[in-house]
Amino acid sequence: MALEALIFDVDGTLADTEREGHRVAFNQAFEALGLGWCWSAALYGELLQVAGGKERLQFFIEQFSPPLPQVSDRRAWIATIHQEKTRRYAALLDAGKIPLRPGVRRLITEARARGLRLAISTTTHPENVQALLVNTLGVDAPQWFEVIAAGDVVPDKKPDPGIYRYVLERMNLSPEAALALEDSEHGLAAAIAAGLKTVITQTEYTQNQDFSAASLVLDHLGEPQHPCQVLRGRPLPQGYFDCAIATTLCLVL
Ligand code: XBP
Ligand code: MG
Predict the structure, then answer these.
(1) Is 11 in the active site?
(2) 92-110 pLDDT tens trace
(3) 210 counts as catalytic
(4) How far apart are CA 54 and CA 82, in angstroms?
(5) pLDDT, tens digit (0-9, with 9 covering 90-100), for 65-83
């Protein structure tokens, strides 16, 4: 089936947001709230096994039993921490601290010029998506995406396929006519379960994960002057991923 749409994950795919973005925002929120917690880059890499910031906080509390204030409603308290973290994260984005990964701007620009439909499928909070798109691609960028499926719009986070099924339903799109771009095994599992062929651009945090179900695994999408490496799948003679490659992948049975 011909390629109609590209569906982008956000964190780790559009931008390398986790170590110097979300992790820093969590630590700023912990300090502002006087919690005395601080997530190192290594600990955060462990905590990333849980998708979703609120779910990650709950997992941290369960696994590490950090000092906790007495709270009557743990869920509401975690939501308050997460709200503060999201505010801090937006400030980092507004300060231009988180650039797009190589090839992302080029691929989106090419896809728009070819009339491909675009969507976003992410675990992160919707405010984070808006802030990243506006700060990196401009104030109009959110409108380029027919559907921006983010955070709690579905009950279960990746690797559950719900967020990808949500996008496909709202676009009235067959999974065979779309390609997902992801960075993690959670994201790959979600996309594959929704019936989508998937291209992986791995990150420092996801480089040792299992991407055997992906159609292509790259270190990044590449640029003409900054070629990518193919870690698994067909060679890319021109050294970067583009819509022609995406179209070919979509046609392969
Ligand atoms: C990655 C996630 C998110 C972010 C933090 O999302 O798991 O939870 O780490 O964002 P993606 P929130 O699907 O884009 O890779 O704190 O807003 O959840
Ligand atoms: Mg991701």
Answers:
(1) yes
(2) 999 999 999 999 999 999 9
(3) no
(4) 6
(5) 998 999 999 999 999 999 9
